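## tool: complex_structure
## caller: assistant
## args:
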Amino acid sequence: MAKSKEVTACLLIIGNEVLSGRTHDANLPYLGENLNKIGIRLAEARALPDVEAEICGAVDQCRRKFDYVFTTGGIGPTHDDITTACIAKVFGVPVVRNQEAVRRLTEYMKAKNLDPNDRALNEARLKMADIPEGATLIDNPVSAAPGFNIENVFVMAGVPPIMRGMFEGFKGRLKGGAVMRSHSMTAPVPEGRVAGPLTELQKRHPDVEIGSYPFKRENQFGATLVIRGTDPDEIAAAAEEMRRMIRELGVEPVNETTDDPTAG
Amino acid sequence: MAKSKEVTACLLIIGNEVLSGRTHDANLPYLGENLNKIGIRLAEARALPDVEAEICGAVDQCRRKFDYVFTTGGIGPTHDDITTACIAKVFGVPVVRNQEAVRRLTEYMKAKNLDPNDRALNEARLKMADIPEGATLIDNPVSAAPGFNIENVFVMAGVPPIMRGMFEGFKGRLKGGAVMRSHSMTAPVPEGRVAGPLTELQKRHPDVEIGSYPFKRENQFGATLVIRGTDPDEIAAAAEEMRRMIRELGVEPVNETTDDPTAG
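## result:
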């Protein structure tokens, strides 16, 4: 069902703490939703351990396969932060101390009301100013230490408010395609009853994607049916048939909502 | 830092709804934590769209690379549920109607206090009894429709309570290695101050993994430092040095916790 002009992205979530279950990733849903608003489809996401070969392998595979690759995590001051070194290795460039990044860190440390010990721009902190040669800095509006962009790869921090601040800052540079819109309604019947007619509906409307998400609330089964596509008229036509389909099962569709990510 | 006898797993989260941001996956942290309890390390996770080529490619790559592959999602009755067909394709076997699965679905539908329409074991519902030839059923204690296991691949539903019920049922069949234990403490200083000595500590204790997770609460910076390893004595030795290291920064370590996943 992939469109020919679709712009795709892959997210690489870097960090042992996500895989161990210690940290619950919140960046995937944020990026999935916010990339869609600018016409980019998050087509895959991977959570990877802090292991050089794994990170390098995934970055190299994904930068060739997708229009954009976003990474989160592993750009802090500690020994387990190895994302920058991995990205440099993939692109075959050295990591160099970036003077603009040093300046930003220096200014940030000075401005903070900190204990003199906490303010020192020590070697560990300066590591955050080491950037692959030729990369463009990504602004960090929260804690100064920048991310960076090299070719189609965008390297961000993993801490959600910092990641969001970085993404909001550079998203204007990304080139998206058609924006996916959606329309959803709930059929208050078990998914197994709606599945047959839904398959027929999908066949009649191959240019939209129809998803079905079953639930059970207070002993009432239901399925949320979602129509996604780039053409509002196609979506409206499929929605009209979907309403009829649900009524033919002897129930009324409920909770209809239209999501136009380009609005507001 | 990978151990030679480590048992590894990969999780494939199947479904457009996770990538669009509509559904927040809760299965990754659950499996990361609960696999570790039986000595299996979740070494990668991927969120994939409902696209046959993508699912087949990832399953085939990951079943060769990891000891176990777990999939969640895409085994329901609707047209967008294509996981079963993909797995069969990867293993080169046909999908056949499994009579034991039919029996379970029939019994479940009969037992439920449902409208006669909702109770019908129609074609869509029977699709959930179609299983790759030669696969072993995975019990579904919630809603009957089974998952299945073929070689090192375990196929589960995506709805979290069903996934958990399935996993709890078959986890006794998995063969784990050494269980990762952990010990953590908080250094109430900015991560940048602890990073240098922490690197030295990691070098002196190569058989444990030391992670650092920075935070800021009520204007107080801190870093949660986590020591992970299979040998409790190694962990205790690293923890003792870590306490000393934090005290040398002029502060006391706080919130010490030991996690022994084999206990309780």
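## assistant note: The mean pLDDT of chain A is 93. The two ends of chain A are 28 Å apart (CA to CA). Handing back to user.
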